Amino acid sequence: MVRIGLIGLGFMGRMHIAAYDKLEGAELVAVADKDPKRAAGDLSGGWGNIDGAAEQLDMTKVTGSTDFHELINNPDVDMVDICVPTPFHEELAVAALQAGKHVLCEKPLAMDSASAQRIADAAEKSGRVFMPAMCMRFWPQWVWLKQAVDAGTYGKVLGATFRRCASMPPGWFSNGELSGGAILDLHIHDTDFVYYLFGMPAAVRSAGYTKTSGKTDHITTQYLYDDGPTFVSAEGSWCMADGFAFTMRYTVNFENATVDFDVSRENPLIVYAGGEAEHITLEGDGYNAELAHLVECINAGKAPTTVTAADAVASIRIIEAEQKSIDTGEAVKL
Q1: Are strands 218-224 and 130-133 parallel, antiparallel or unpaired?
Q2: What would the mean pLDDT of 144-156 be, rounded to a whole number?
């Protein structure tokens, strides 16, 4: 049994709590949040762009604290799950690893690649199991797409587009010094998945602007490959008007089929081939599968393979190249 200590009880922390409730082989034993109400188990009043977050936590067997380091040093905790704003990831992740804990750290791993690399180095030195929480690599329809690309099920990929757009979420996200803007906190999902599918691009060409956070809040990027799909692009935004429904979509054009996913549809995933439309039904979300993979790795004493600390560093490097492209108006090589 892996005993979990969770730091940060905002939207992502509440999603993780709901996932742990369904997960065999793991038990939530401690939580910490700067808000005393949340630390006492009252998680009501939060927001979320995906349904399923916990609203109340049964504290009968859970220790609550407003001190993050008290949780890290709790001898009853085997693994620390870090769900706080990004600037605090390095301090907490390194402290937990040095305390001998396994660690799950929410995305983005850090505010920049140098900080992310320090976390990766600390993880390697610690000998503990460490995983960045890149949930799209575990999302059923994204797992399906990865398998289809790798197996060549529909032939080679000719082009791929990804779109993830929303209005500005409430809370600290509108402060770019905490969130890094949509380019880092939101768009990294798709940048990372492009990297997962096709490898490191030779270069990126991006355009973007800021609206609220002071950082880039709306971005479009072309990922340029010397030997890969002709066209790969992604758009990410927190600049839509209030009331705009959260958009999460991809369209991938293969030699022999077009695959389209749109989270807003009753049947989100459709394959168009041979004049027919096939609806692919897949249940669940990425949070349950993500946490199950990590717990399985801890119990087996092996390193995660679906996503690694090195992957998280690489994805932030690409984001930094995208920002440089916005700043210079030129393609940036990687």
Answers
A1: unpaired
A2: 98
